[in-house]
């Protein structure tokens, strides 16, 4: 029988589950080797943490270890039920707020090492965190794809720590359509992209008019697992900021408020790094929702979670 201790939080509605104890060691090598060991242990140890009956598909997990990058306080591997992520913006905010709740850090600036590079995080108070993400950029502008049963859609392909297709003028619009309609449409877009030369795209982001008075747009984000992001998505907002900057629609240092599909928001801005890249800053709030010990009994037929 295995017991795994976790602390749960939500960042603007999107959950993060930080693993505290009980999983196999990933070694003390560089983070790339830790990711490889993580993949080897994923199905047995990490995926069940995010599956029913202990969790649900929208949850993102975070494994942390001693830092292997100069100046960092932690190595972190974020993951969802589909596997490890390069980076997770809402997860970084949730991680920092959880470490503060546990008394491990105080307000101040910190560096966290992720599989795609070191990110900076500033704990402003116990719930408010501002992160500086990895360099982000627009890869391709106005990419048209014919989506079966919907017709053509045009969007940008951008990187913000993960790969995104940004549909600025979708057929199914956040704020007007149901969650089921947006999910179905986003899945259709992703399949069409993957089948037509863009296998790296595993997130799709739809945009519509905001409902918050201080926001510039409302989004819907389809995650790799097929769930939607309850938050505005940190890496997705980073990708969008990179796209807007490259299009000349956002100035360096200019605040941009991205509203989520549930009505929460992130505030972002960028620093111009040159060569078409920017470093996004994303600010949001996270709250701890619980600390628990998960029990995995081999006699339980659903010990490793429900898989359909």
Question: Could you explain the architecture of this structure?
Answer:
With 308 residues, the chain is an alpha+beta fold. It has helices at 31-46, 89-101, 179-195, 234-246, and strands at 2-11, 14-21, 60-65, 74-80, 83-84, 108-114, 117-123, 128-132, 136-147, 151-159, 163-167, 203-208, 217-222, 256-259, 265-274, 277-296. It has a 16-stranded mixed beta sheet that branches. Helix 3 (179-195) links the parallel strand 11 (163-167) and strand 12 (203-208). The longest helix has 17 residues, at 179-195. The model has no long low-confidence stretch (mean pLDDT 97).
How does the SSE layout of this entry go?
Layout: E1 2-11, E2 14-21, H1 31-46, E3 60-65, E4 74-80, E5 83-84, H2 89-101, E6 108-114, E7 117-123, E8 128-132, E9 136-147, E10 151-159, E11 163-167, H3 179-195, E12 203-208, E13 217-222, H4 234-246, E14 256-259, E15 265-274, E16 277-296
Parallel strand pairs: 2-3, 4-6, 11-12, 13-14
Antiparallel strand pairs: 1-2, 1-16, 3-4, 4-5, 6-7, 7-8, 8-16, 9-10, 9-16, 10-11, 12-13, 14-15, 15-16
What are the main properties of this structure?
308 residues; alpha+beta; Diaminopimelate Epimerase, Chain A, domain 1; 2 domains; 19% helix; globular
What is the CATH architecture assignment of the largest domain?
A: Roll
- Count of domain modules: 2
The third-level CATH topology of the largest domain is: Diaminopimelate Epimerase, Chain A, domain 1
Helix content: 10-25%
The SSE order reads EEHEEEHEEEEEEHEEHEEE
**Alpha carbon gyration radius:** 19 Å
**Shape field:** globular
Q: Quickly give the structural class.
A: alpha+beta
The CATH homologous superfamily of the largest domain is called Diaminopimelate Epimerase, Chain A, domain 1
- Please write the CATH class name of the largest domain: Alpha Beta
Number of helices: 4
């Amino acid at each position: 029988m295995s017991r795994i201790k976790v602390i749960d939080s939500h960042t603007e509605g999107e959950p993060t589950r930080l693993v505290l104890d009980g999983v196999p060691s990933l070694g003390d090598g560089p983070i790339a080797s830790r990711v490889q060991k993580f993949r080897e242990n994923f199905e047995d140890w990490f995926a069940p943490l995010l599956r029913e009956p202990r969790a649900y598909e929208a949850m993102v997990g975070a494994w942390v270890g001693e830092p292997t990058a100069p100046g960092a306080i932690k190595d972190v591997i974020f993951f969802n039920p589909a596997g490890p992520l390069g980076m997770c913006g809402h997860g970084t905010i949730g991680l920092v707020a959880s470490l503060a709740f546990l008394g491990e850090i105080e307000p101040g600036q910190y560096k966290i090492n992720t599989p795609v590079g070191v990110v900076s995080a500033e704990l402003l108070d116990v719930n408010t965190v501002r992160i500086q993400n990895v360099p982000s950029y627009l890869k391709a502008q106005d990419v048209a794809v014919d989506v079966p049963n919907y017709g053509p859609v045009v969007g940008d392909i951008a990187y913000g720590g993960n790969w995104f297709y940004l549909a600025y003028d979708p057929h199914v619009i956040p704020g007007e359509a149901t969650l089921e309609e947006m999910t179905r449409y986003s899945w259709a877009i992703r399949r069409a992209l993957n089948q037509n030369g863009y296998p790296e795209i595993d997130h799709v982001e739809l945009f519509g008019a905001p409902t918050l008075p201080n926001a510039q747009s409302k989004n819907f984000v389809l995650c790799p697992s097929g769930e939607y992001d309850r938050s505005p998505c940190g890496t997705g907002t980073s990708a969008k900021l990179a796209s807007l900057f490259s299009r000349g629609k956002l100035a360096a240092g200019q605040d941009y408020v991205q509203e989520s599909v549930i009505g929460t928001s992130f505030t972002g801005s960028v620093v111009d790094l040159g060569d078409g890249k920017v470093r996004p800053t994303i600010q949001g709030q996270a709250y701890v929702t619980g600390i628990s010990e998960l029990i995995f009994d081999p006699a339980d037929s659903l010990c490793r979670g429900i898989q359909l």
